Amino acid sequence: MQVMSSIPSRLVNEIRAGNCVAFVGAGFSAAAVPGWVNLLRALADTPGVSADDRALIGRLISGEPPVSKDLEAAAQILRDRIGPEGFPDALRSAMPRPPLNDQMHRRLDLLRGIPFRSVLTTNFDGLLEGRPPGREAYLRVLRPSSHRWWDARFWDSRQGPDVVHLHGDVGAADDVVFTRTDYRRRLYASPGYTTFLRSVMSTTTVLYLGFSFTDAYLDDLRSEILALLDYQGGDHPIAYALLHGVDDDEIAFAREHEGIEILPYEPGDDFTGFDDFLRDLHAATNPTALLGDLLSGARILWVDPDEASIDHGMQFLENAASGRASIERFDTPRTAIDAASEAKTDLIVTRWGHGQGAGGEPAAIELLNGLRQRAARAPVVVFASGAHADENKREAMALGAASYEFTWEGLFQEIERIFTPGSSHR
User: Sheet harboring 380-383: ordered strands across?
Assistant: First the structure.
């Protein structure tokens, strides 16, 4: 097996562009959650399951490895015997949320810090907080108000991407897809569910993490999308999959005929190879890395008469620039104008500073006029509050400001526009 030496640049670019969805399977949670066989054993001890049923379930799940149809049969027997009223509590008891080990904490932090458009998961273990399939989840994934790295959920609260629990969540176990009957109901009694999956798979790049490709329906759905797009072997892949234990022929076949670029890895002890991949992908795509790449080698002047207005967004900016770009702070427009006149400057960010410029004019106006008088060249972004934004923006832009922003997200988006090489848009 050829082990992955680097993450494909196209995958990195798709994530950076907000066009990649992570599809998370059982392998992602294996370090913290009991496997399917152990879960069935725990449920078999539920009151109401007879000794004969426990014996039958024991036989069904005893294979090495267990046969998929036998596991499905055992699950159906347990759900039927426990009954709809008792099953939610029984499942929660059999799947208590354990204290997470360091490995799982790191894995979750890495996943949340990668700016995926969204995360879809068939896991119902509750490790990833999210929403069940339905209107709200579908709208947030298919018609998001924001899904780029500058969205505060990636750099401020670390909430991370929106998560959709395709098979439900143990916290609402009455809606969990646990048996084949449950899955059939989800597929064919909820037409919006399949339309949603088709839309995601046909319009975004999918990265499969901890996914085993044993779901016949999803395989059929992928085939439908390949036919819809008339996929040819030389096309860009429509999906990537992190897998171990695959040989070179399987890798070539998946790329040529399945539209999947397999990213092979050696699992190592406790599947540390999986974590190494997430760490490298995070390093290449997380907002701090993206902003740091954009600002590399840049000189930025920050003009703000009110230091108290600096908050968490400034901390993120400084962390991204650390060791890669310089951010020089100035209390007055005059000192910033002098600094911009003395050396090449790549960006100036100024607060509006009402009444804080010379003669009582706004600090931003003094700065813009002073730069023109001294022929100092640098794009200026006015970063102000939302108060009087319309009239202030017109005045600032008339004097040469590149932009007028009043949210950190807007400022970071404008920084990307200014520093992206060769284009005003990305």
Answer: 326-330, 299-303, 347-350, 380-383, 403-405
- Alpha-carbon distance 305 to 331, whole Å? 5
Contact 22, 116 (CB under 8 A): yes
Half-sphere exposure of 131 (CA within 13 A, CB side): 12
pLDDT digits (tens, 9 = 90+) for 323-356: 999 999 999 999 999 999 999 999 999 999 887 8
**Predicted structure pTM score:** 0.86
Place of tokens 């975004």: 204
Tens of pLDDT along 21-58? 999 998 898 777 778 888 999 999 998 899 999 999 99
CATH of the structural domain 9-30+102-268+275-285, one choice from 1.25.40, 1.20.140, 2.60.40, 3.40.50: 3.40.50
Q: What pairs with residue 403 in β-bridges?
A: 381
Tokens describing residue 408: 């950190």
Segments of the chain assigned to CATH 3.40.50.2300:
289-419
The tokens describing 96, both together, are 């208590």
* Whether 127 contacts 29, CB under 8 Å: yes
Secondary structure letter of residue 6 according to DSSP: S
For residue 65, is the peptide bond before it cis, meaning its omega torsion is within 30 degrees of 0? Answer: yes
Fold of 289-419: Rossmann fold (3.40.50)
Maximum CA extent, the chain: 91
